[in-house]
Amino acid sequence: MRTRSSRGALGKRLSSSDRATIHDVARRAGVSIATASRALSGRRRVTPDVADRVQRAAEELDYRPNTVAQALRGQSTRIVGMVVPGIGDPFFTQIVEAVEHDLAGSGRELLLCDSRHDPAIEARRVRALLERQVDGLVITPCDATASVPAVREAARSVPTVQMDRYVEGDVTDWVGVDDESGVNQAVAHLADRGARRVAFVGGAPAGSTARVRLEAFERAVAARPGVTVAARALGDFSVEHGRRAARELHASGDLPDAILCGNDQIAVGLLRELRAAGVRVPADVSVAGFDDIGYAALTDPPLTTVRQPVPQLATEAVRLLTAPPAPARPPCRIAVSPTLVIRASTSP
Amino acid sequence: MRTRSSRGALGKRLSSSDRATIHDVARRAGVSIATASRALSGRRRVTPDVADRVQRAAEELDYRPNTVAQALRGQSTRIVGMVVPGIGDPFFTQIVEAVEHDLAGSGRELLLCDSRHDPAIEARRVRALLERQVDGLVITPCDATASVPAVREAARSVPTVQMDRYVEGDVTDWVGVDDESGVNQAVAHLADRGARRVAFVGGAPAGSTARVRLEAFERAVAARPGVTVAARALGDFSVEHGRRAARELHASGDLPDAILCGNDQIAVGLLRELRAAGVRVPADVSVAGFDDIGYAALTDPPLTTVRQPVPQLATEAVRLLTAPPAPARPPCRIAVSPTLVIRASTSP
DNA sequence: TTGAAAGCGCTAACAC
DNA sequence: GTGTTAGCGCTTTCAA
To answer: Where in this chain does the record put each HTH lacI-type domain (chains A, B) (predicted)?
Structure first.
């Protein structure tokens, strides 16, 4: 009468959540729990007759393995943790969706955390995930420097891959797009359409993508004779920042020929505000974004943008998480090439 | 030499993920593991001096409790499972974000699953969550009838709350908005603005919200003399469905005065396509949505819509999950009143 | 092939 | 107030 279930067998079942354990299955099948375990897992040969009996007993009792116990015993939870700066950002949403899908395909689950763009919260969430013995961690560190300790700590105890953004130093594997290439394609496109004075509205360079895209922008413009930087507006990767930048640009009375945005959220806000101000896109000014979130095709005019191959990024990340932990293998960086999607916001 | 950590103490530490256990802390502090546990948890009085020593030992060893072991022992994982039809849908994204936030506030984590609008996948995900001994489950069942078994199974073994959609029968608690009220407000508003012929573009009534909103629409129109149903287009809650409906409506050459959409995604697609076809909103036709997702304020024209108080819904859901399991308390239904947000898509 | 038993890391009786 | 000990449910030696 040791287990909760045998209490149930006495007719004193306290609640329906009193589930059958492997003990119950073994008893019912008339074998030891070891044999029951072997039969159920199929990882070891068992007499066919015995296997059948165990199988049937399990079904009759509606047996469900307790994965918590399996995890404690087997040192693997089959849970992967994920920390993103903001679940609500459509780009991160896409990534979360893709990672969850890939994990589900291999019987793993996703423990999702939102750091709310705050390194302190992020550090706490990472710690909580580690205490939960996650098998791996996917993180988009919100700050290139302030997030270093959290990422380091994660990497010390569990396979960790940074996605999209990364922290300073070669701390862990990283998967993302080649921002330089993406920005280059966008600037080349804008220049080809005749833009001479190009503005950049992006994120403040606390996160790596914000910085890298800005720098790539500067280089891309500098590399093109006749093209100059009309303005830079740095804030966060939000719709609101886009709106603000649009108002300022418009108020300055000196619109550039084209505006490249650090991400689509910014571009969406910018487009909205430009329209409200009566500025015509692309006639008066061309606008391009970065990410290709779902809504990019729905703005008016539809947004030209640099598409991130999200499913591929997710697959690479999950693959790295599972990769054989080659002893002291140096961190790798996988930069997938993005493609420019040309829509009406940059062409008549 | 029983624990992995004592292996480490022998200098044979195999990997840095060889974490200190409570045994190590106890040994270092010179107390028993029970005392260490008590000191660390603070749930029982301990001599101040001893408490200090344990605390220090824990810090020095960088001790982290193993929550898997705590869960196995304590019958609580502090993990809540969540299953939604589609992570990518902005409305569900908002809900996930809000639930995650509320859970984090009470030291719990969110195990997120996407059923991809498929009852079979949904059932598998629910089962996986139950095997993981989640403390509770929040689910938006994709189908009012096909999802019944999965929801029932969940409810049998763990506190479960349905959010937004629900299945037939009083199976579990439910939290959502009062769809009837929301649709009524929208129809009243459209009628007030002079609409006589009103169309409905919504979801096929497999999910509960789709059905309820459609029925509420029929009733609301019927209750208003002079107002009639111009058309019904039922599909899924997607942008694409909205686009398709707009094309059909336009091709029919007989536009209604106003269109109420089953959700904002549909409305966004509809607005896009109407604009492409040269139909003016709201001059030629008014359009209203449901949910008030972030982009509703960013469409052109901005979308009038029924706002769901997402943070409140999430808070209620989390509260119900934690509510004392009054024995055989009948399931409750919490229907929060939504508010109509009037924007330019229905008024000049 | 099968069973007995150890033990994953932790908490809570139960003694002292 | 502190230590000893019995498990939580499972998998995997190690013997038989």
So the answer is: 20-74
In what order do the strands lie in the sheet containing B228-235? B228-235, B197-203, B258-261, B286-291, B304-307, B339-341
Show Cβ contacts of residue B324 under 8 Å, excluding neighbours closer than 6 positions.
none
d(CA B318, CA B309): 15
Give span(s): CATH 3.40.50.2300, chain B.
77-171, 179-308
Asked if A276 is an interface residue toward chain B (Cβ–Cβ < 8 A), one would say no
Confidence bin at B3 (pLDDT 50/70/90)? very low
Neighbours of A4 (CB within 10 A): 16
What's the CATH architecture for B1-63?
Orthogonal Bundle (1.10)
Write down the pLDDT at residue A75: 86
Q: What DSSP state is assigned to residue A2?
A: -
Confidence tier at B326 by pLDDT (50, 70, 90): low
Distance between A301 CA and the closest CA of chain B, angstroms: 10
- Residue A245 tokens read as 């930048």
Q: Residue B251 and residue B246: Cα distance in Å, rounded?
A: 8
Classify residue B283 as left (phi > 0), alpha (psi -120 to 50) or beta: alpha
Architecture of domain A179-308: 3-Layer(aba) Sandwich (3.40)
Task: Give the model's confidence band at A12: pLDDT under 50 very low, under 70 low, under 90 confident, else very high.
Answer: very low
Which residues on neighbouring strands pair with residue A212, listed in sequence order? none
Distance A132 CA to C6 C1' (A): 24
The two three-digit tokens of residue B19, written as one number: 């974490």
pTM score: 0.94
pLDDT of residue B17: 52
At A12, give phi and psi (nearest 5°): -110, 25
Four-residue CA torsion sign, A191, A197, A202, A208: positive
Q: Is the CB of B65 under 7 A from strand C?
A: yes
Residues of B in contact with A16 (CB under 8 A): 156-157
Cis-peptide, bond into residue B282, ω within 30° of zero? yes
Distance separating alpha carbons of residues A331 and A139, to the nearest angstrom: 15
* CATH level 3 topology of A77-171: Rossmann fold (3.40.50)
Average pLDDT over residues A80-95: 98
Q: Where in chain B is the domain with CATH 1.10.260.40?
A: 1-63
